[in-house]
Amino acid sequence: MSRYVRLILCISLVACCWSCSTTKYVGQDEYLLDKVDISVDDSRVKADDLRSYLRQQPNYKVFGILKWPLYVYSWSGRNEKQWFNKLLRRIGEPPEILDTTLVGQSRKELHRYMINKGFIHADVHYAIDTSERKKATVRYAITAGEPYRIREYRTQVNDARIDSIIHLKAPKVSWLKGVFRLAPEEYTPLVQSGSLFDRDVLDQERQRLTNLLRRHGYYAFNRDYLYFWADSAHNQQFVDLDLHIKPFRPVMSSDSIKERPHRRYYIDKVSVVTGYDPLAPEHTRIAPVDSVWKRGVWIYHNSKKHRLRSGVLARRSYLLPGQLYSDRNMELTYSAFANLGALRHVNIRYDEREENDTLKLDCTILTAPAQTQGFGIEIEGTNSSGDLGFASSLNYQHRNLFGGSELFTAKVRGAYEALSGGNSQAGWGSYWEFAGEASMLFPTFVFPFTSYDFRRKVRATTEFKFSYDQQRRPEYRRAILSGGWNYIWQNRTNNLARHTFKLLDVDYIYMLHIDTAFRNILPEITAKYNYSDLFIVSSGYTYSFNNYDPMKRGRSTYSLRLSLELAGNTLYGLSNLLNTEKDADGRYKLFGTHYSQFVKGDIDFARSLTIDNRNSFAFHLGAGIGYPYGNSKELPFTRRYFAGGANSNRGWSVRSLGPGSMPITDATTFVNQVGDLRLDANLEYRSKLFWKFELAAYIDAGNIWTIRKYDYQPQGNFDLTRFYKEVALSYGLGVRLDFDYFLIRLDTGMKAYNPQEIGHRKWAITRPNLTDQFAWHFAVGYPF
Q: What pTM did the predictor assign?
């Protein structure tokens, strides 16, 4: 495409948007709400925080610049019955017509907000500017005034026990004798002397104290029993604040039932009912065929088929006889039972009673079983660097193999991909893959000497897996035999952090065939360490933290991932200890096959900042390094880094960038474009369009480098004097379909700075084209 054609297309698009009037469907004596301004004379109040309280907002701007949905709506014709006009109006957004009634209501909402924040004497004025034809601008001017502050804060509680709980301090430990404690921040008062008289904060404090009391036995307590009394008689700008608690009154109270002090509840009998069917007749819902008493918990089995072991169920109840009632223990019980894949429904029911002047709760945990076995077929399309293919798999699952909610999974998979660079002389122009895998997942720590208390403290799974994968490319055929023993766990009181410990991870790579022509062009070191039989025996640890909550999709989030992998050290130590002979290259062997030795670490941090309900900004920083030593002079190909692709630098196709500033003329095969060190940085602006569609604009930066100098990768090594000149840049746009629980995206990228070019050609942004400077990517999920 010539430069002139591109210029004409750009001018045409701009002219189309410019010529389409945004007031096309604004009627006579009506005005389009074009803009809303909010000004506040107090820096403590942010104007952006006030926009959500407006009853009428202007039409949405994509990236905060262009009212694209309104333009699309305006493109539609007057005939509403034509399908194309219907489509444009459904995709677009109708003009927001100024409504003075809503403007007045917005003023009241803003005034109410200021009062709630402590600015009792705030004043809100608005003005409507209609000087521009058929367009209106509304300006809200807020005079905050001096806010009220809390001069003195007191708790007026007549109950000594409740008063002591309210003033509890955070304990030094979060776990003691099997009883879960609150997090330290839940003990921190939100209302203090000297702070603003903020009614929203007062409501939050009421909820915090309610949670605190309900976690210390007060089962019947709710936030309506708490109220604040404010006295402003001493000073116009200060209030004395008192916290009071109303006496308890039963829900079904009458004049004969007097109010009484709040009392604590104790757990008495705890029962777990299996095979519960809420749709069955009332008299058959709980009809146990037998019962078992285990660790203070009664287990009632409604059926003899597909039963969970009694010990597994009893261990997951954190509501135990004799304990004070606690909301936290109830939450932990729900979470522990929900973690059992053999169950599909869990409900906890309480029965209150009084015995010897003590309030007691009988707790019944009702569980319904899930489908025990299942089959599934998956069909998927693939696109690797422009090479299209497909894959399909047959899956089998058993969710309760040994009666402990163990998940057994087996899968058989086949894949095909048409390779544009196929070696026709070898008789292949495609990639084939045949694989099978099996895994067993235990919902607990499977390891000797782990205590009962420790197993209850953490939500853990133990995974054993085995797989066989045979791959056939034009250049080679190989088989990979793998096995692993992994632990994954989370603290039950903090499910945002996740730990993965690979106790043992074994890969045996067996080269079935390698094409002679391909073998001859490989560097000798690469052939030895990556295209010959090889053992990789490693252990590793990964820590990941993510505060994303699908129930709170509008808030800002962040994630952190740290990982470390060590391979070959134990084998190398045994080889030294047993005085095993080395081969001509000075390398040890395991069962006649070389093994790798290396250390590898990665760190990734991502942050998503919400601007408003339709716009967000996200960024990502990542780095990784792998270092071969001892029995290896090069990392295994499966552990080396590559750059370019849907989750990397999107101006390049997958595995087509780097390493370093290695000239493009030397990047003759994917074998060359790998490295031992990576740096990544990504910036992305995300904006909702319509329905499930989302638009993104982004800038990517990064590259890969090698730790050592290799002759077949000139200028590919990391050098402090030039690495900053070798950071590649790209930019692009992407369209996404967000279905809440999964996201499909199509990203397009253009190279901006290519360190593998020479001279002024490095700056590809000066000569954009859709041939060698463009890449597109189809993927599932956000890139970070």
A: 0.83
